[in-house]
User: Fold Fructose-6-phosphate aldolase from Trabulsiella odontotermitis.
Amino acid sequence: MELYLDTANVAEVERLARIYPLAGVTTNPSIVAASKEPLWELLPRLQKAVGENGTLFAQTMSRDAAGMVAEAKRLNNAVPGIIVKIPVTAEGLAAIKLLKREGIPTLGTAVYSAAQGLLAALAGAKYVAPYVNRVDAQGGNGIQMVQELQTLLELHAPQSKVLAASFKTPRQALDCLLAGCEAITLPLDVAQQMLGTPAVESAIEKFEQDWKNAFGNLNL
Ligand code: E4P
Assistant:
């Protein structure tokens, strides 16, 4: 499976790339805007932070297919190997089809239903990103959407992968992986929650205390 961080925080990517088995970094326009750094300067820094084998994702801003294709080409020229995120609108679907013909890999984003995600995959998107928590926040069932999308892709578009996105808890991410998703992208807080339960630290402190009581030091 592929684990991505959903962030534009270069320092945190650098720190966590040492620790986590990362496949790369995903961004979206809000994430880039929060960094206040121009995209074209940010992307090379993110690439360096995640390592040359890490895959970057960046999103187009145009609303029409021709504009999306032009931006995708610019991204592809600037960062070889980048996956271009295209919102799955009517124009977005047209752009995904055109980019597939051009050999530029895409991710269909802003996916709020299994049907929408299936269309992106059939149009040729390499990845499809359903928004789990945003669907939950609307009173829907994000995990159920992902389960359906995963099954639909396995049956009808096996060349595309679900890259599940929009998480607020590790539980949501695990449920997507249990549904068979091959990729997830986590915001920094959820990535850290996966490792940082307070019980772990107190278990280690107890081991140290017991050892010190018996041997007077912490040496092996
Ligand atoms: C991924 O494609 C999305 O940009 C992202 O995961 C959305 O996450 P959010 O709902 O936490 O903003």
The mean pLDDT is 97.
